[in-house]
Predict the 3D structure of the following.
Amino acid sequence: MTTIEFNEILDFAVEREKDAVSFYRSLQNKAKFADQKQMLKEMEQMEMGHIMVIEGIRNKGVREEDIKHIPNLKISEYLTKELAESELTYQSILIKAMKREENSVKLYTEMSQKFPDSEISTLFRRLASDEAKHKLHFEQLYDDFISQGN
């Protein structure tokens, strides 16, 4: 893998994270309650933190041992209902976040399998792992919420 290819992949990943930041920022403008806005702000900050992680990869590279195994609760895979943009409940926000992260995991996992270059594959697997960590976070929040009888 050339440095240019490596940086192009990271640029792509950073753009996806910037899209996520914009997504959560736009939802903040639509949220009706302060608690919702705060949670969406935290999600936005989490995505901004992921941009910093990606930039760290740009500077230090990526190694196989950097890839963490993240459990998958598969909650988002069992949720199929498309939510209206105007439906901004705590539950719907968590579902939107889980689905967004699920799609990112799928994308990066598929990309890791399409490139025979082991460095590129490792890079995409690392990105998928990071997204899986975010997905797990939202799935745990969702599970806690549902377990409380909501």
